[in-house]
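Practice problem 4.
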Protein backbone atom coordinates (compact mmCIF):
# COMPACT_ATOMS: atom_id res chain seq x y z
CA UNK A 1 0.00 0.00 0.00
CA UNK A 2 1.18 3.52 -0.66
CA UNK A 3 2.35 5.46 2.40
CA UNK A 4 -0.44 8.04 2.07
CA UNK A 5 -3.02 5.24 2.13
CA UNK A 6 -1.45 3.76 5.28
CA UNK A 7 -1.46 7.18 6.97
CA UNK A 8 -5.09 7.76 6.02
CA UNK A 9 -6.16 4.39 7.38
CA UNK A 10 -4.22 4.94 10.60
CA UNK A 11 -5.73 8.42 11.01
CA UNK A 12 -9.21 6.95 10.52
CA UNK A 13 -8.52 4.25 13.13
CA UNK A 14 -7.31 6.87 15.62
CA UNK A 15 -10.39 8.99 14.95
CA UNK A 16 -12.74 6.02 15.50
CA UNK A 17 -10.86 5.03 18.66
CA UNK A 18 -10.87 8.57 20.08
CA UNK A 19 -14.56 9.07 19.29
CA UNK A 20 -15.36 5.74 20.94
CA UNK A 21 -13.38 6.62 24.07
CA UNK A 22 -14.90 10.09 24.37
CA UNK A 23 -18.45 8.87 23.74
CA UNK A 24 -18.16 6.05 26.26
CA UNK A 25 -16.82 8.36 28.96
CA UNK A 26 -19.69 10.80 28.34
CA UNK A 27 -22.28 8.00 28.45
CA UNK A 28 -20.90 6.67 31.73
CA UNK A 29 -21.05 10.15 33.27
CA UNK A 30 -24.61 10.63 32.01
CA UNK A 31 -26.10 7.17 32.66
CA UNK A 32 -23.76 5.40 35.07
CA UNK A 33 -21.32 2.58 34.50
CA UNK A 34 -23.78 -0.30 34.79
CA UNK A 35 -26.22 1.00 32.17
CA UNK A 36 -23.86 1.68 29.24
CA UNK A 37 -23.93 -0.90 26.45
CA UNK A 38 -21.89 -1.54 23.34
CA UNK A 39 -25.03 -0.82 21.28
CA UNK A 40 -25.40 2.62 22.87
CA UNK A 41 -21.75 3.39 22.25
CA UNK A 42 -21.96 2.30 18.60
CA UNK A 43 -25.11 4.34 18.06
CA UNK A 44 -23.76 7.48 19.75
CA UNK A 45 -20.41 7.21 18.01
CA UNK A 46 -22.04 6.59 14.64
CA UNK A 47 -20.21 3.36 13.86
CA UNK A 48 -21.53 -0.15 13.45
CA UNK A 49 -21.49 -2.58 16.35
CA UNK A 50 -19.35 -5.00 14.33
CA UNK A 51 -16.77 -2.25 13.81
CA UNK A 52 -16.85 -1.37 17.49
CA UNK A 53 -16.19 -5.00 18.42
CA UNK A 54 -13.16 -5.00 16.10
CA UNK A 55 -11.65 -2.33 18.32
CA UNK A 56 -12.88 -3.39 21.78
CA UNK A 57 -14.34 -6.60 23.25
CA UNK A 58 -16.56 -4.82 25.82
CA UNK A 59 -17.38 -1.57 27.61
CA UNK A 60 -14.78 -2.21 30.30
CA UNK A 61 -12.01 -2.45 27.68
CA UNK A 62 -13.12 0.89 26.24
CA UNK A 63 -13.07 2.52 29.67
CA UNK A 64 -9.63 1.13 30.43
CA UNK A 65 -8.33 2.50 27.12
CA UNK A 66 -9.94 5.87 27.91
CA UNK A 67 -8.30 5.86 31.34
CA UNK A 68 -4.88 5.02 29.88
CA UNK A 69 -5.25 7.98 27.53
CA UNK A 70 -6.23 10.25 30.45
CA UNK A 71 -3.19 9.14 32.44
CA UNK A 72 -0.88 9.78 29.48
CA UNK A 73 -2.37 13.26 29.07
CA UNK A 74 -1.86 14.00 32.78
CA UNK A 75 1.77 12.89 32.63
CA UNK A 76 2.31 15.08 29.55
CA UNK A 77 0.71 17.99 31.40
CA UNK A 78 3.08 17.50 34.34
CA UNK A 79 6.09 17.37 32.00
CA UNK A 80 4.99 20.65 30.39
CA UNK A 81 4.58 22.30 33.79
CA UNK A 82 8.03 21.05 34.81
CA UNK A 83 9.61 22.32 31.61
CA UNK A 84 8.07 25.79 32.02
CA UNK A 85 9.80 26.40 35.37
CA UNK A 86 13.35 27.74 35.61
CA UNK A 87 14.99 26.04 38.58
CA UNK A 88 14.63 22.88 40.64
CA UNK A 89 12.49 24.35 43.42
CA UNK A 90 10.09 25.99 40.98
CA UNK A 91 9.81 22.79 38.95
CA UNK A 92 9.03 20.71 42.03
CA UNK A 93 6.45 23.20 43.30
CA UNK A 94 4.77 23.52 39.89
CA UNK A 95 4.54 19.75 39.42
CA UNK A 96 3.19 19.10 42.92
CA UNK A 97 0.60 21.87 42.50
CA UNK A 98 -0.48 20.60 39.10
CA UNK A 99 -0.71 17.01 40.28
CA UNK A 100 -2.62 18.00 43.43
CA UNK A 101 -5.17 19.84 41.29
CA UNK A 102 -5.53 16.82 39.01
CA UNK A 103 -6.15 14.61 42.06
CA UNK A 104 -8.60 17.16 43.51
CA UNK A 105 -10.62 17.44 40.29
CA UNK A 106 -10.89 13.70 39.57
CA UNK A 107 -13.08 12.16 42.23
CA UNK A 108 -13.49 8.47 42.91
CA UNK A 109 -16.65 6.39 42.71
CA UNK A 110 -17.60 3.18 40.94
CA UNK A 111 -15.74 4.14 37.78
CA UNK A 112 -12.54 4.91 39.68
CA UNK A 113 -12.74 1.53 41.41
CA UNK A 114 -12.94 -0.21 38.05
CA UNK A 115 -10.25 1.84 36.35
CA UNK A 116 -7.64 1.94 39.12
CA UNK A 117 -7.09 -1.78 39.28
CA UNK A 118 -5.31 -2.33 35.98
CA UNK A 119 -1.63 -2.89 35.33
CA UNK A 120 -1.59 0.41 33.45
CA UNK A 121 -2.21 2.22 36.73
CA UNK A 122 0.75 0.52 38.42
CA UNK A 123 2.98 1.54 35.50
CA UNK A 124 1.68 5.11 35.63
CA UNK A 125 2.25 5.33 39.41
CA UNK A 126 5.81 4.11 38.96
CA UNK A 127 6.39 6.63 36.17
CA UNK A 128 4.98 9.41 38.36
CA UNK A 129 7.08 8.31 41.34
CA UNK A 130 10.21 8.31 39.14
CA UNK A 131 9.24 11.71 37.75
CA UNK A 132 8.91 13.24 41.23
CA UNK A 133 12.02 11.41 42.49
CA UNK A 134 14.06 12.97 39.68
CA UNK A 135 12.77 16.44 40.60
CA UNK A 136 13.65 15.81 44.25
CA UNK A 137 17.12 14.56 43.27
CA UNK A 138 17.64 17.75 41.28
CA UNK A 139 16.38 19.80 44.24
CA UNK A 140 18.73 17.99 46.61
CA UNK A 141 21.69 18.68 44.31
CA UNK A 142 20.82 22.39 44.20
CA UNK A 143 20.37 22.58 47.99
CA UNK A 144 16.63 23.36 47.74
CA UNK A 145 15.47 19.97 49.05
CA UNK A 146 16.56 18.13 52.19
CA UNK A 147 19.29 15.53 51.73
CA UNK A 148 18.76 13.55 54.93
CA UNK A 149 16.03 11.38 53.32
CA UNK A 150 16.50 9.52 50.04
CA UNK A 151 14.69 11.11 47.07
CA UNK A 152 12.85 7.82 46.37
CA UNK A 153 11.44 7.86 49.90
CA UNK A 154 10.56 11.55 49.67
CA UNK A 155 8.76 10.90 46.37
CA UNK A 156 6.56 8.30 48.06
CA UNK A 157 5.82 10.72 50.91
CA UNK A 158 4.92 13.48 48.45
CA UNK A 159 2.60 11.33 46.36
CA UNK A 160 0.83 9.94 49.41
CA UNK A 161 0.42 13.43 50.82
CA UNK A 162 -0.88 14.80 47.51
CA UNK A 163 -3.53 12.05 47.53
CA UNK A 164 -5.19 14.00 50.37
CA UNK A 165 -6.16 16.63 47.77
CA UNK A 166 -8.96 14.29 46.66
CA UNK A 167 -11.01 15.07 49.77
CA UNK A 168 -10.27 18.77 50.13
CA UNK A 169 -13.14 21.25 49.79
CA UNK A 170 -11.45 23.86 47.57
CA UNK A 171 -8.52 24.76 45.37
CA UNK A 172 -7.30 27.07 48.13
CA UNK A 173 -7.13 24.07 50.46
CA UNK A 174 -5.17 22.20 47.77
CA UNK A 175 -2.70 25.12 47.63
CA UNK A 176 -2.28 24.98 51.41
CA UNK A 177 -1.65 21.23 51.22
CA UNK A 178 1.11 21.75 48.67
CA UNK A 179 2.62 24.50 50.82
CA UNK A 180 2.76 22.09 53.78
CA UNK A 181 4.32 19.35 51.61
CA UNK A 182 6.95 21.76 50.29
CA UNK A 183 7.75 22.95 53.84
CA UNK A 184 8.49 19.35 54.78
CA UNK A 185 10.93 19.07 51.88
CA UNK A 186 13.04 22.03 53.00
CA UNK A 187 16.60 21.26 54.14
CA UNK A 188 16.88 21.00 57.92
CA UNK A 189 18.42 24.04 59.59
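Answer key:
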Amino acid sequence: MPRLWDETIEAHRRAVRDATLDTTAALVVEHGLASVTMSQIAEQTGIGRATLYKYFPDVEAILLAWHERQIAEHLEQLAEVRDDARHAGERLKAVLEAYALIVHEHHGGDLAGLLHRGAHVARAHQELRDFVRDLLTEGTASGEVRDDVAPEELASYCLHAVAAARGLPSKAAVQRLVTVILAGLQPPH
